[in-house]
Amino acid sequence: MDYLQKIQFAANSYYNRGLEMAKERDLSGAALYLKRALQFNKYHTDARNLLGLIFYEMGETSDALTQWVISINLQPENNRADHYLDEVQRKPGQLEIASQTIKKYNQALFHAQGGSDDLAVLQLKRIVEEKPNFVKAHLLLALLYMEHGDHTKAGKSLFKVLQIDKTNQKAQRYMEYVKSRTGKADVEKRKMKNAFSHREMQDDDVILPPTYKENTGWQSIINIAIGLVLGAVLVVFMVMPARERSLNYEHNQEMRAYADKLNLANQKADSLQKEADQYRQEKEAAEENLSSLMGDSDSTLSQYGTMVQILNAWRKGDIQTAVQLYIGLDQSKITDESMAGVLGELQAEMNASAPAVLESLGAQSTAAGDYDTALHYYEKYMEINDKNPQIIFNMAMIYKTKGDEETADQLFGQVIMNFADSPLAESARAERGY
Amino acid sequence: MIDFEEEIQRFKPSLEVEAVSDAIIKSDLTDMADIMMEIMKEIKEK
After folding, report:
1. In a mutagenesis test of the B interface, which of A1, A2, A102, A140 is the best target, namely the one with the most B β-carbons within 10 Å?
2. Tens-place pLDDT, residues A310-364
3. Average pLDDT over every residue of A290-301
4. Is A84 helix (H, G, I), strand (E, B) or coil?
5. pLDDT digits (tens, 9 = 90+) for A204-245
6. CATH for A300-432, among 3.40.50.2300, 1.10.510.10, 3.40.47.40, 1.25.40.10?
7. Is the distance from CB of A177 to CB of A185 less than 8 angstroms?
8. Smallest Cβ distance to B17: which of A4, A95, A112?
9. How far is the alpha carbon of A61 from chain B, nearest alpha carbon, in Å?
């Protein structure tokens, strides 16, 4: 193997390494190896084209164009650089925009190096908005932020740089500085320490399962929403019924209290009603008593009046009138003790005198055809003396005359049975048709 | 510790598009093979 072949192999080795690093987005490292490959073999087209791509990816359009143009010059035919150049120049104005962006960056760098940091920051912010992969602009912006103590913004810019070129030495160095200022370095150190420590478990240590995940913002919102829904469900199905039961219980208690009061009031009303009824009955009884005392002919006062009339007629010797009044007297109403004694004496007199008078009055009424009055006198006679067969026979005859054969036969039977030796018994038998 | 003044001076202006042609012309494309060929040529001449 001659020296030229060895040089070719060395160039290829550097290219391969550079290609690997580029695939891993270690663009700075890849650029170093690709430059080394080109130092061994300037005709290594792939190495040069890849180096151009890396410059283009890092926002260095002019450096990319330089490499691709040289590549085309060294290998005019069958060269991928032709395609890259075509892509960059195809879109109208794209190259002009790239040119302006680079000019703005250089201007911002001029301001920054001249102490006009604010102007530089404004310019650089606009540049990274237009060209987010411009690594040098991000780095300069991060440095300015760091200088002004805005380490959070610096960290964001550096994070973008490391996304494009993950081993960018300047970005790594700045990032370490930023982390040391924001406290993230300590947090990461603790995490590393915990990750590799083998200390004994403490009682209050918590073992997180492998499936455990820190909630993101959206997950937190969703979890809060789920929590609110569950809370609402809990309120609807558990708290509200309990509250409703409580309200119902209170309502029932209140209703029960009202019902008790109502019952008491009703009982009182019933009691008053009973008292009123009692008073009303007493009033009616009193009125009745008064009426019985003062009212119609059957009243007590009237009976006392009759008593007086009887006594007057008796004193005058008018026995017939006295007897007629006596048979109409309601003796039960004579309750006065002094009058009751008088009545007793009168009864004795009447028992002796009244039968003859009554028999006579009955005969007169019968003769006059007033059978009912005749029967009335005979019945009064029977109350005083029921052992006179003539009276019973006379009553039977009146009933027979009135057509009441049954009563008449019964009375004829009494005469026949009780007074068999009496001449009237034979007449009674004849009347009954024996 | 990062020295801002020192650090800011390390930043170099980017190559502008208009300067690409100059850059290409000024590019030193000498590689290891050129150097070897030069050395071997000198050796033969001696």
Report:
1. A102
2. 888 888 888 888 888 888 888 887 777 777 888 888 888 888 889 999 999 999 9
3. 67
4. helix
5. 766 666 666 666 678 888 888 999 999 888 888 887 888 788
6. 1.25.40.10
7. no
8. A95
9. 8
ipTM value of the model? 0.89
Structure tokens at A159: 């994070």
Q: What is the pLDDT of residue A245?
A: 81
Q: How confident is the model at residue A24 (pLDDT cuts 50, 70, 90)?
A: very high
Q: d(Cα A67, Cα A63) in Å, to the nearest integer?
A: 6
Q: Which of A41, A61, A98 sits opposite B31 (nearest CB)?
A: A41
Apex CA A228: angle with CA A227 and CA A234, to 5°? Answer: 90
The class level of CATH for A97-190 reads mainly alpha
Contact (CB<8Å) A139/B33: no
Q: Is the pLDDT of residue A57 over 90?
A: yes
Task: For chain A, positions 56-115, list CB contacts with chain B under 8 A.
Answer: 60-63, 65-66, 69-70, 73-74, 95, 98-99, 102-103, 105-106, 109, 112-113
**Alpha helical stretches, state H, A42-116:** 45-57, 61-74, 80-90, 94-113
| A174 vs A188, more confident | A174
Chain B residue with the nearest C-alpha to that of A109: B13
User: Is pLDDT larger for residue A395 or for residue A238?
Assistant: A395
Exposure b/e, A305-331, CB count within 10 A at least 16 = b: ebbebbeebbeeeebebbbbbbbebee
Angle of CA points A300, A305, A308, to nearest 5°: 130
Q: Which CATH class is domain A3-90?
A: mainly alpha
Distance from CA of A67 to the nearest CA of B (A): 8
In this prediction the pTM is: 0.50
At B12, the amino acid letter reads K
Q: Do B15 and A103 touch (CB under 8 A)?
A: no
Shortest Cα distance, chain A CAs vs residue B44, angstroms: 15
pLDDT band at A1 (very low <50, low <70, confident <90, very high): low
Chosen from B4, B9, B10, B17 to mutate, greatest number of chain A CBs within 10 A? B17
- The domain segmentation of chain A, as residue ranges, is 3-90, 97-190, 225-294, 300-432
